[in-house]
Amino acid sequence: MDPDCYRVAVGVYGTFVTNEGVTIEVVQKATPSPSSSTSTQAATPSARRRRRTVKLPRLRESLVYISLLVPAYALAQSFVGGDLSHQAPYGVPAQDFAAAIASPAADATFPIPGYNTSLPAGATKATGNNNTVHGWSLSIGVTANVPLTHSDNTAVNKDLCIDATALSITPPAEVAGYNSTGWRVCAVVFTGGLKAAAAGGGSTRADGSCAAVLPDDCIQQLQANSVAGRAGRRSGGCRDLDIPAECAGHFVGDGGTGFEITPIGNSTTLADRRSLFFAAGFEPAVKGNKTALAAAQRRVWPVMLTWTHFAESGDVQDSAGWMSCAKTSESKGVTSDGGSGMDAEAVVAGMAGWGLVFWGIFAGLMFA
Question: Region (Disordered) spans which residues (predicted)?
Fold first, then answer.
């Protein structure tokens, strides 16, 4: 086996649609070495800005055996956001994906502050504590073994499956519809997740708030940074969020990715009034991989929802942002022997440790 064949590509797989309707697709995939297991790491906004390929030099034939000692961390994640009626992770057909996530292995629903998005544009303030409409909810579901059989991504193994996480919001019955000229609802998903110390083993509050995993000043600053300024306009679109200094040491990565949620309460891919706005699929694996499923179910997803109401002129009238931390509870099908899983921070730390081992063996071979 030729060690010259080993390649490592660093980047992100994701599909994004700009405000002008241009679809951008970038890829992150680290090709695993043979006879080794895989783990996953969430992509971060900073990772989206780079892609490089490193080719290992030809060494002695004995170098091949080093691959048996070093686990291949396949740092791949595919995620999509916004209107998911025509897109899904890893190029799975949208209708197939919607059918698969209809029966999640684990799910949870949390109440969230929301507003009457059926109101038209105008000078009357429609956000803030005094205008909250009760009954809005945020849902998360983790689905096991979503097949890649019909994926249009030629780079994936069609015989494998993915464990997928999906996020959606549902309006209350009293909110009759969505006025697209009067409102913009954005979701900023922190796809890198939380660091192990911050996540506390995946513990969150039953109400979906972030109080158990993030300090109050961090949450308040994120919410303040998320709201649209009065200088903003309807054409501005949703934006990403950087991690403020108050949140240092809590997040993996340097920010969250923003998507516009549309349509709201009029979904074409879900049977009820839920609006699916984000979905992620982790590293493809063989069907029934309980370790991967357990890790997906323990993961905490920080999500910022921003509600912006516009004046008739198209300028921002008022805006409010609310932070949630969503996760499911483990299903009965995942037992303690399914493995503890590995969060993004642990994967990076593990790679660094194995890098030192690799360098030690490499030096021994070169100078022996």
Answer: 29-52
